[in-house]
Amino acid sequence: MPGIVLVGAQWGDEGKGKATDLLGRDVDYVVKFNGGNNAGHTVVIGGQTYALHLLPSGILTPGVTPVIGNGVVVDLEVLFSELRALENRGIDTSRLVLSSNAHLIPSYNRTMDKVTERFLGKRQIGTTGRGIGPTYADKMQRVGLRVQDLFDSSILRQKVEGALMQKNHLLVKVYNRRAISVDEVLDELEAYADRVRPLVADTAMLLNDALDRGATVLFEGGQATMLDVDHGTYPFVTSSNATAGGACTGSGVGPKRIDRVVAVIKAYATRVGAGPFVTELHDADGERLREAGREYGVTTGRPRRCGWYDALVARYAARINGVTDFVLTKLDVLTGRDKIPVCVAYDVGGSVHRELPASQSDIHHARPVYEYLPGWDEDISRSRSFKQLPPNAQAYVTAVEELSGARISVVGVGAARDAIIQRHSLIP
Q: Which domains does the chain have, with CATH numbers?
């Protein structure tokens, strides 16, 4: 049975929560494999809106086992706050499983994240300040704290002491902040130990055993391709691998077990935070997209930068992830336009690029080359088959499909859970 990876194809906020929820009806496990509570999924069910940050979207689907994999960094306060909020709304959260190898976000890394970002001044990355980057840095420097450390007080103390030995020097001598005591960190973390213990498992074994017995496993990526630490618009990226390869390292499941890679992409483009964005709009069209698409961050509330569909980014995402299927979301947001621009190339100093330039400098200086597709005025939010779409909306989907390097299997036409058009099955 299949292992399916679901990733974002742009800069995040493409609607992965809706796609995960759609797939979740046919899968047995949903695995979050990267990132932390620095991103969010919005899922609308029966008129109710659920905003998830750290939890896998599959937690909303009865019968699905949601898994937080080893590649995730976990803020325990956020974890239990989210669980409590869902339980208060009648959602069963008892199936959640947490990897013993996932890293913890201690309070000192939230502090480090905020003070270092401010220290950068105009060179700021646009971090959410939630301690994600410093925690991944600790992981790579081998001074991080893992979930399993909560259950060995001696090891936990040694690790916190080792981490604070360096961080307190920076806080006091460089950033003019107070030192953080080992005991206050230990008290904060150990208070969660008994609540965490029932959730913890060897999730790599759990998932491999599930695939062995014929279960379907969906691997859900946080953030998106253009924010991947290796393959995104570095340094304006997240701190983890948000591409399909991260599903393997972030879950402990080998690449031969992945049967399909589904990438979610908006019918236009958005970005939060700093960094290059070639098709960005700074005019009324950008504001219109923002308001029609309700483009404000689920986690931060920040207004998103908005722009037109970029086919170079789509093809790049298809190539980097090995995309088999695209889910095109928010087609309804484009309703009411006479013409809709689609970026088909970049002009960099008079040189035309048909593929995403390898040089970050070239991307920074690029200007979009547009083709214009005819728009439509009809309400498409109730369309449930491709033939029910207006001819120009059908033509838009077909055109961007031809430009994007993989088939468009699902089209989102509204915010509701069932506001989709399925052209091809996402389950192998």
A: 3-93+202-422 (3.90.170.10), 103-197 (1.10.300.10)
